[in-house]
């Protein structure tokens, strides 16, 4: 082959690796035997650049489809395959998790954008800034009429005086309040002004982010549940990565098809089978452990997301 053959795309072939200068074998290998870099180099196309960049974070190569099939249809198989040393046949657990979470959040935001278009409305304050000139404010999505009224009154210079009688904290005179009193007062005031639908909407919006934080916590719950099994935290962490990967994909499908209830039972059943196969449990052992883990996970998720919602509401 000539130095400027079409295959090399203008880059002359050299008898050594361009990266580490290791002398290449004959016939010329596809990859360098010393550093692993490709030996046939050419200016990348846009598609190749995009694939290479995205490939560092998510997996869209051939093994992904084999991995997704095992993740959905063969409960526990990916975790056991990883423990057996099959690291090249399937996508590694962390990349599976990153891929599933990436797909979920992209799809989630697309679905939310289609369901909740921003709406604006004008609200007149009962305390006009000047005679005959009512103040108008834009109602934010999910804002209650009481909040809009308070915002309009504040804009008109007639802000409401909010007092927490239990703590004796006047928001109009914050110098008389401690930081903790201001925080609690803000939480109470904001919480009272939010409707049940608003709390539910904010919880639903933040729950996926709570799942991201709960992934290592779930591994800790598994470590506590199987304390006498001799397994290390890293092993439970792998199972947690695979479990959360499935949950993200199932949650996206449930939201898109509006089958949350059915998908919940399907995912729970799949999780029982996966736990039984990975931890070598009986059906009875898998069921009671699965119920206990589910309750603990749900309680921690609700508490964590609830605190996050309250914190955001207080500082909004």
Helix content: 55-70%
* Proportion in β-strands: under 5%
Shape: globular
Largest sheet report: 2 strands, antiparallel
Overall mean pLDDT stands at 75
Class by helix and strand content?
Answer: mainly alpha
Distance between the termini: 67 Å
The count of DSSP E runs of length 2 or more, i.e. the number of strands, is 4
Spans with pLDDT under 50 lasting ≥5 residues? 1-10, 118-129, 157-168
Radius of gyration: 28 Å
Going across the biggest sheet, name each strand in turn: 1-2
Question: What's the tally of helices?
Answer: 10
SSE series: HHHHEEHEEHHHHH
Topology (elements, then pairings):
Blueprint: H1 46-55, H2 62-73, H3 77-83, H4 93-115, E1 122-124, E2 136-138, H5 145-155, E3 163-164, E4 169-170, H6 179-193, H7 196-225, H8 233-257, H9 260-279, H10 283-315
Antiparallel strand pairs: 1-2, 3-4
What can you tell me about this protein's structure?
Helices cover 59% and strands 3% of the residues. The N and C termini lie far apart (67 Å). The chain is mainly alpha-helical and 316 residues long. Among the domains are: 1-43, no CATH class; 71-113 and 197-315, no CATH class. The longest helix has 33 residues, at 283-315. The model is unreliable at 1-10, 118-129 and 157-168 (pLDDT under 50). A hairpin with a 4-residue loop joins β3 and β4 (169-170).
List keywords for this structure.
316 residues, mainly alpha, two-stranded antiparallel sheet, two-stranded antiparallel ribbon, globular, disordered N terminus
């Amino acid at each position: 082959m000539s130095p400027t053959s079409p295959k090399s795309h203008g880059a002359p072939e050299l008898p050594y690796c361009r990266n580490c200068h290791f002398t290449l074998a004959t016939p010329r290998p596809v990859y360098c035997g010393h550093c692993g870099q490709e030996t046939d180099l050419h200016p990348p196309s846009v598609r190749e650049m995009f694939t290479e960049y995205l490939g560092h974070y998510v997996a869209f190569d051939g093994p992904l489809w084999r991995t997704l099939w095992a993740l959905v249809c063969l409960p526990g198989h990916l975790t056991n395959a990883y423990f057996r040393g099959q690291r090249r046949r399937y996508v590694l657990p962390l990349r599976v998790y990153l891929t599933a979470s990436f797909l979920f959040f992209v799809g989630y935001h697309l679905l939310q954008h289609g369901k909740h278009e921003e709406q604006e409305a004008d609200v007149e304050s009962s305390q006009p800034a000047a005679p005959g000139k009512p103040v108008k404010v834009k109602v934010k999505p999910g804002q209650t009429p009481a909040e809009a009224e308070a915002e309009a009154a504040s804009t008109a210079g007639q802000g409401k005086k909010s007092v927490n009688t239990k703590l004796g904290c006047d928001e109009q005179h914050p110098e008389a309040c401690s930081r903790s009193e201001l925080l609690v007062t803000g939480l109470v005031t904001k919480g009272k002004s939010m409707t049940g639908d608003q709390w539910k909407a904010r919880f639903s919006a933040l729950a996926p982010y709570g799942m991201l934080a709960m992934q290592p916590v779930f591994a800790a719950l598994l470590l506590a549940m199987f304390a006498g099994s001799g397994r290390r935290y890293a092993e439970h962490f792998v199972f947690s990565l695979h479990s959360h990967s499935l949950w993200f994909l199932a949650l996206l499908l449930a939201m898109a098809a509006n089958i949350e209830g059915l998908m919940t039972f399907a995912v729970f059943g799949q999780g029982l089978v996966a736990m039984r196969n990975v931890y070598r449990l009986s059906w009875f052992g898998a069921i009671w452990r699965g119920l206990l883990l589910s309750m603990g996970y749900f309680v921690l998720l609700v508490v964590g997301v609830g605190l996050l919602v309250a914190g955001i509401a207080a500082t909004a």
